[in-house]
Every structure is written in C-alpha cells, then in structure tokens.
Amino acid sequence: MPSPRTTAVHPAWLPPGAFAALGGRRVVVAGDGALTSTVAAEVAAATAAHGGSWARLEVGAGTADADLVLTLAEDDPSNDADEGFRFMRDGGSAVVQAPTERGLLYGFFHVVRLGEDAFAGPDTDETHAPAAELRMIDHWDNVDVHPTMGQVERGYSGGSLFYASGRVRDDLSRLDAYARLLAAAGINRIAINNVNVHAREARLLTEDLAGVARIAAAFRPWGIRVHLSVSFASPTLLGGLSSNDPLDPEVAHWWVRAAARVWDLVPDFGGLVVKADSEGQPGPFAYGRTHADGANMLARAVAPYGGLVHWRAFVYDHRQDWRDRSTDRARAAYDHFAPLDGTFDENVVLQVKYGPLDFQAREPVSPVLAAMPATRLALELQVTQEYTGQQQHAVYLGPQWSAILRFRLAGGPEAGDDGTVAGLVAGSGGFAAVSNAGTDELWTGHPFAQANLYAYGRLAWDPLLDPSAILDEWVALTFPDAPVELGEALHAVLDTSWETYEMYTAPLGVGFMVRPGHHYGPDVDGYEYTPWGTYHFADRDGIGVDRTQATGTGYTGQYPAPWSDVYESLGTCPDELLLFFHHVPYSHVLRSGKTVIQHVYDTHSEGVERVEAMIAAWEPVAGLVDPAVAERVAERLAEQLRSAIEWRDQVRTYFFRKSGVPDEKGRRIF
C-alpha cells in the first residue's frame, strides 16, 4: 500500500490542503483490492490531517452516516478495463460508485478536484468515463548519461526519475509521489525509457528486467501500467542473431521468448514502444519489409498477454539534399503509412505526432490522422517544451492541444463531432505525450510547467474540457489556500502564453528557426542548409515553403476535402499557417491588413511587450507562494524576457537584411 505524503518532494497539484474538503468529513471506503487500498490510504491520510474520520467496510455494509462513500459496485458485469465511475450527491452527502478499482481511484480524485463543491449544490447523479482507453506518458530517459543528449533526451527538469549511475535506481520511493500525480490527472500508462534506444537501454528488455519489475511495482498501486521502448535490432544486439528481418521465423521466435520473459516477471506489463527507420534507429526497411511487417511481428509476440505495440509514425529521411526542393519532410509520415491502412494487427497502435514535422509551436494537424480509419491511432503530443521554451519559458500548452483536439479534420468544419482529431483517435488508440518531469525538486524545472503535465492528463481523459477551466483546477489544487489574486495573476501569465511565445519566435507557421542540436534560442538559418529538411526558403523577395499541388511539393493533396483546397489556395489558407504552405512576397497582405514583413516586425515587438506584462502581473503576488517557487519563477521569467528580446532582435534584423523593407513604425533594427 502506498504511503501518501511521506516523500519529501514538492506536492505539485496534490498538497495536503487540496484534501481539506473530504478530509474534514466522515468517509467510508467499501471494497477490497490493491487500488481500493490505495484509495483507503489516501482517505486515511486526509482525514488524519483535517480532523475527519473514515472506515473501511465490505461492499454493501452500512454507510448511512457517511458524508462520502467510495464504493465498488456489487456484482457489476462491466469489463475489467472500465475506468468510469458514477458520482451522486444527495442532501450534501456524496457517493462515488465504480465497477472497477481503477474507476474508484479516478472517482476519488474527482472528489478531490471538486473540493467543497463535491458536497455543495443541488442533488446530482452523473456518470464519468475517459474518452480514450490509452492515456500514456512517454519518458525519453536514458539509463546511461548520453554524451550528447544527457540523462533525459529533450528533458529540462534534471535527471531521470528511474535511472542513476547506469542502472535502475536503488531508491524508487519518489516514483510513488510521481505515480500519484499522474493518476490524479487520469494517466494510466507510462513508457519508462527513450524511444531512441541505445545499446545500454536495450538491455532493459533482458538482463535488467528485474529493475523494470521494481519500477512497475511502484506504479501498480496507482493503476498505471509500464511500457518499454525497445530497439528493433534487439535480436542481433541482444540475442546474437544475424538478422532482424521481421519475416524470419527465428527473429519472430526470439521476440516470442522475450515477451514470455517480460510478462512472466511483470504480469501487467503494458507493451512495447518502437521508433524504427527514423533518425538512425534500425527498422524493417533494411530487409525490404514494410512497417506493418515489423509492427505485426512484434504484436503477435505480445498478443497472448494482452500487450500492445505503440509504433511511431515519425519516419522520414534525415539525410536530404537541401538543394532539392521537391523533397518535403512534411510528406513523409503519410507517404510511408497511409498505404498501409488496414494491414496492422489489432494490438498495434500507430503513434502519430500532432503535426507533420516535429512539435512546433504552430503546425497544421497531421493528415495521417484522417487517412487511416482502419488502423488504431494514438495522437502524440510533447509536454516537454522542446520547441516551446524548454521550461525556461512560461508557455501553457492547454490551448494549443485543445485547438488540435477540437479540429475537425475529417470532413471539415461542417462535419460531425466524430470528424475531430479527438474523435479520430479516442475510440481506437488514444493519447501519448513526452513527459516533462525529472529529478528537479519542483518536478518540471519551471513550476508553471506542472500545469502542462496536469492539462495533458485531463485532456486525454476528456478532450472537450476547456483549457482555461483546467488551469483553474490546477491553480485551485496547487495553491488551495491562496487568495483570488494569485489565480488571476496566473491566468494573466498563462492564458495567452502559447500565442505570446509564437509571436516572438517563428512567424506564420514557418517553424523551427532554432539553434541546431539543443533547439533553444534563435538561429533563423540554423537548419536551412542541413540534411534535416526544415527550411523557410527566405530570399530577397519572399519567404515560405510551397507545399501546394499546383507548383510545390504536393503536400496539400494529402488532406481530405475541404482542407486540401483550403490550404492549396492563398485566398483561403489561414494566415497562421501561411508560410507552412506557401512561398509569398514580403509585401503579401494578411487578413489583418498588414504585410508579411510588417507582421514579423510587429509581432516580435508585441511578444516582448507581452512577456514584460507577464512579469508585471506576477511580481505583486509572488509573495503568496512558497519562496522556493517564487524564486524559481522570477529566475525563469527573467530568462524568458532575455530570450524573447534575443528572438525579436535576430528575427527582425534577419528579415530586414533579406527584404530591405524598413519597419513602418521606425523601431530600431540592428
């Protein structure tokens, strides 16, 4: 049984004060099992801290005097995978009833989120259930410290929660606190190592399985199943075989034996995550096989145990010739995978990045999500802020993710709800996202980045939640005793922070413009002449990538109607994506009435002004939070302002020197 609040780490959105409403009441927990014991331990700690009382009873025992009853349903025939719950309020008393222990756990955290509102207000009888079965967090942690990428690839919050000194940590006690945070946000699966599987990390599948089992044991009391990223080359790397050909029976049998060993030690193991034929990772292309061949071979090995294979669709040529304007990295995922629709086994989940490139602050939604109706799809997001300020900048990504999830990709604006991105993935695959947590004392480096991890979990549970309301939840849970002024200031800082970041970085959907390698800070030409395929094609006359069917790479043709036509035409392409789809002169007039070049000048200046306003909004309330949090926020906001100014000055100067067009407002350009 976990022991809540015993680990000396920052409580994030679960401080003791968040449990005051239920902790001061009479609570009954009815039922048996490991997760029910987790709920009971939480209730015991809350009532001890806040003066209430609690009892553990059998299902169906007397509960008449309780203010809150948390109970498993008697003789419910629901599937074991059912994670929903029923919430009832009658005369100021509340009942959570669930068919499974996972549902009971999520129902308990629902009551925590509601606070006093769980017991106040009119009588109600509500049913809650997650939109998607799979709600996964992917860690890009390395067992060994990688010489270039460090302990956590694209991690900005310290070291790994799982590994130290080249092995699974001896002390995994902090994982209890981490699992508790994830469960409270609705996350039910976790991949515990980098998708770029190096030689040392590959051994988690074999000789390090005992360590994996210890990690799984830490997450099990919170209803979270563990997954591993594996190398497609494991048979040669670990098994001494001469081939990794997915159609070779000896290779397939090696994976069958490997799966048997894993599930023998970890019976509730979730499955495998695979990055293949991408950025140097091995895959089936080396043997003339398709990605369906590779994924299905693995899927059949894990199928007897109910295991899944999350196969990433992030596949492209990273050794392109920058001179060749017909090659388009954006096309790659669709070109590779759309023809394979319907050929993947049922327990394969194709994991598709939200956009066609790489987690930029602004990209169009990937057309792959509409092109594969006969394939299980998972939408992949990036909670770690690789291209959105690396947790040095306060950037609340809830609004970005909400816009993606609500986007009606299939059938366009007039389509029904099942045409949304959320509808396309929730029913079959679900959601995955790269974690932003590490050994930093505040979990996420920037304290405000905790809101992104929380928001991801909540949107994966219910994609239609309002991101502003989610931020309200996070504020109320994280700072439960703070005055209203603190919440107002946090909204002032975070509500439009994604838009603000976009303003002072790469304009109009052009993307990247970051320093190669570490991806922090401006470098407008950083990737322009490299093999990675991320170009803006700026010259003296204009900027942008022609991805039209008429004169460009043809990428717009990968979209279903009406989006193929919307993006094809300059007259209908949204301005925020203009330079992603079109090469235009600097004098092109946007719907705002401004030219492209003046938009660049104005938004980069306004972005800096907005960061200054964020600082001004925060400073008066900084004293209302823990001094360690206040100090970290002040340091990060100062760095955000410095970086925003650097972005402003470099981007404005670059395009002035390219275009020769002055800022009509006469501001200084270097």
TrEMBL record:
Domain Glycosyl hydrolase family 67 catalytic: residue ranges: 125-443
InterPro entries: A-glucoronidase_C_sf (IPR037054), GH (IPR017853), Glyco_hydro_67_C (IPR011099), Glyco_hydro_67_cat (IPR011100), Hex-like_dom2 (IPR029018)
GO BP: xylan catabolic process
Keyword Hydrolase belongs to the record: yes
Gene Ontology CC terms, in alphabetical order: extracellular region
Domain Glycosyl hydrolase family 67 C-terminal: 444-667
Superkingdom classification of source: Bacteria
Keywords: Hydrolase
UniProt GO MF annotations: alpha-glucuronidase activity; xylan alpha-1,2-glucuronosidase activity
Claim: Ribonucleoprotein is one of the keywords in the record: no
Name of the protein in its database record: Alpha-glucuronidase
